[in-house]
């Protein structure tokens, strides 16, 4: 059986696959990386069994400066309509929301930055990816914009006190995460150096190397199994939410 093939849309060099790539490759998933700034997005999702869309410093609707954002939204919309398992992170989540009828805007309460908690919502208990997460998992936040309104019919899966729409699912298997799970301490420190105004909104010790290393060990404990469940969804070994697709028998 051939390895499932995932299309990875990377809007910015500053937010690579990093740990997410390691976890997916450990699951036997083939990754087809497209750096949107420098190479064209595919015309469609033919030949792909899943989609990843990463983060970036631009806004989800900044098409004037970044015309390829429209291609990302088109592919995310197609993934939802074709029921292709999708994981969209930070900017990716905002693009997913905008592509499917939600609203994105600059966050009125300012940047949300640092190692923080999100809390699962009731719908998460019935979700194939979120059900087994702790009630309040640690995540890495680094964003200025927010998903203001979820797309029509979306399931709200996680919230934070400052910005409620932290995680959601559109359709059977397209997931948006406002937060980051893919980072390394070095990536976070690079973001802090690149955007000191946003970084100043976090507690100062959140950018200490030792603190970040411990936080990322905690992230891995929670989010690597989450990514493994996503890989099962891609392989057809896990039923999507409300799905009636085929599930491979347990051996």
Tell me what you see in this structure.
The protein is of the alpha/beta class and 251 residues long. The chain has helices at residues 18-26, 69-81, 91-99, 185-194, 196-199, 209-235; strands spanning 5-10, 30-35, 50-53, 86-89, 103-106, 112-117, 119-120, 138-143, 145-149, 155-159, 167-170, 174-177. An 8-stranded mixed sheet has the order 2-1-3-4-12-11-10-7, sandwiched between helices. Strands 5-9 form a two-stranded antiparallel ribbon. A two-stranded antiparallel ribbon has the order 6-8. α1 (18-26) links the parallel β1 (5-10) and β2. α1 crosses α6 (209-235). The longest helix is centred in the last third of the chain and has 27 residues, at 209-235. The two termini are 16 Å apart. Mean pLDDT is 95; it is low at 244-251.
Largest sheet: 8 strands, mixed
How many distinct helices? Answer: 6
Overall outline: globular
Question: What is the straight-line distance between the termini?
Answer: 16 Å
- Physical arrangement of strands within the biggest beta sheet: 2-1-3-4-12-11-10-7
- β-strand amount: 15-25%
Domain Glutamine amidotransferase: 26-185
Keywords: Glutamine amidotransferase
Protein name: Glutamine amidotransferase
């Amino acid at each position: 059986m051939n390895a499932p093939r995932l299309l990875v849309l990377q809007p910015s060099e500053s937010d690579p696959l990093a740990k997410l790539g390691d976890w997916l490759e450990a699951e036997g998933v083939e990754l087809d990386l497209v750096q949107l700034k420098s190479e064209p997005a595919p015309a469609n999702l033919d030949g792909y069994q899943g989609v990843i869309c990463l983060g970036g410093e631009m806004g989800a609707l900044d098409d004037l400066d970044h015309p390829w954002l429209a291609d990302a939204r088109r592919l995310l919309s197609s993934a939802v309509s074709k029921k292709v398992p999708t994981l969209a992170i930070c900017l990716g989540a905002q693009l997913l929301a905008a592509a499917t009828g939600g609203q994105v805007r600059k966050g009125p309460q300012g940047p949300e930055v640092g190692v923080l908690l999100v809390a699962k919502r009731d719908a998460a208990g019935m979700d194939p990816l979120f059900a087994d997460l702790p009630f309040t998992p640690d995540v890495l936040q680094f964003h200025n914009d927010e998903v203001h309104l979820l797309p029509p019919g979306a399931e709200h899966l996680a919230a934070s006190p400052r910005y409620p729409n932290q995680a959601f699912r559109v359709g059977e298997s397209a997931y948006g995460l406002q937060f980051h799970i893919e980072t390394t301490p070095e990536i976070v420190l690079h973001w802090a150096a690149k955007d000191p105004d946003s970084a100043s909104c976090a507690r100062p010790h959140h950018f200490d190397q030792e603190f970040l290393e411990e936080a990322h060990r905690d992230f891995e404990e929670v989010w690597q199994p989450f990514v493994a469940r996503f890989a099962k969804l891609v392989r057809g070994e896990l039923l999507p939410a409300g799905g009636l697709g085929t599930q491979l028998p347990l051996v």
